[in-house]
Amino acid sequence: MVLLLLAAPFSNTRIDVxxxxxxxxxxFLTLFxxxxxxxxxxxxxxxxxxxxxxxxxxxxxxxxxxxPTMRATILPAAFxxxxxxxxxxxxxxxxxxxxxxxxxxxxxxxxxPLYVLDDTIxxxxxxxxxCFIGNKMVWxxxxxxxxxxxxxxxxxxxxxxxxxNRRKLFETLADLETTSAEKPSGILMIDIDYFKEFNDNYGxxxxxxxxxxxxxxxxxxxxxxxxxxxxxxxxxxxAMAYGYGEKELLFIAExxxxxxxxxxxxxxxxxxxxGVAYCGDEQVRNYENIIDRAxxxxxxxxxxxxxxxxxx
Length: 312
Hints:
Helix content: 55-70%
Number of strands: 5
Oligomer: single chain
Mean pLDDT: 89
Strand content: 5-15%
Number of domains: 2
Radius of gyration: 31 Å
Number of helices: 12
Structural class: alpha+beta
């Protein structure tokens, strides 16, 4: 739009419509700044449709009002570009293109009868081409996003439990070193009691089922508490808690211990020892030290007879 405005002094036809170009440019800039506002960002898709409506209105004005004795030039380009401009439901984008094609055809029939057939054919061809390529691009990009999402899940998720894995834990620890990241107020280390004996006595299939059920219990806790669980390795788990005091952390840990104790795995039960490390008021530089404190608390819980909660 800026280039068109700059070219206006060198073109007689452009000088006549400089006000239309200026109005369109002003509307584009206004829409841009409106949809940069935080409370408007959720309506960005609507803003894109409005922006392309401005483009179509300008192109139709140039075609049927300003130059009714010439074939349309900008309009076919608009029909081709619009479906490539963003991602939305293809059917909605196609209907949007069809709407403006009908609007232009009707106006051209009354105001531009000499070239109505030429413009209609040109615009229809470019609209079909743009919609076809645009639809293919939409599905291709969505498939790419989905593949990336699944790959990320696979990379960050433990297969047996469905929880975050150790790799994701250390990525989170690295993020905590940035000033903008929300810091946990405490870390829980959870260790399954006598898990090796459980595997030896009931088989690895039962052990896998135990891990899966444990993952379900932990996931249920994330619905009621601000916790993030990670499988640390073997039969050990780490949970990061956000926004809780010492007493609240102990209550959550005790509730977790009881919930695990009540799991029925084909007539068998398991217990866990939980170590709690509170760090809410500390200026922590390395959260691996907090995990070490929680780990020491786990050993204290095991020395106390297992199936216990201890705080370091």
